[in-house]
Design a protein that fits this description.
The chain is an alpha+beta fold. The chain has one domain: Arc Repressor Mutant, subunit A. The protein is 38% helix and 21% strand. The chain is built from three helices and five strands, in the order ββββαααβ. The strands form two sheets. Strands 2-3-4 form a three-stranded antiparallel β-sheet. It has a two-stranded antiparallel ribbon with strand order 1-5. The longest helix has 17 residues. The relative contact order is 0.25.
């Protein structure tokens, strides 16, 4: 089942993962097993910027607005990219909806 992503919702990292920067790469590691995909996940610069803004306070619309000015890109484009990454991270149980 595909997770539904809402720009009005707040998302945060799962308590079942650890995120670290290692040798210039930002990696997310599951700390529990048996949930399906237990592989290490890496984020690029934009993905890391999204991750850093998921602070349990801002909804995705607010995250996208921050990133739109930070990356000087159209809001609609940023919203699509943010929603796409959040959907992928929800599927992998790396993020949870608050």
């Amino acid at each position: 089942m595909e997770p539904k992503v809402s720009l009005k919702a707040i998302y945060a990292p799962s308590e079942d993962v650890v995120a670290r920067e290692v040798q210039g790469e930002f990696i997310i590691i599951p700390i529990t097993s048996g949930g399906g995909d237990d592989a290490i996940f890496t984020l690029n610069e934009f993905g890391r910027a999204i991750w850093d803004k998921l602070d349990r306070k801002k909804n995705l619309k607010e995250v996208a607005n921050c990133l739109s000015s930070e990356f000087d890109a159209p809001g609609g484009e940023i919203e699509e990219d943010v929603s796409g990454l959040v959907k992928e991270l929800l599927k992998k149980k790396i993020l949870v909806k608050i």
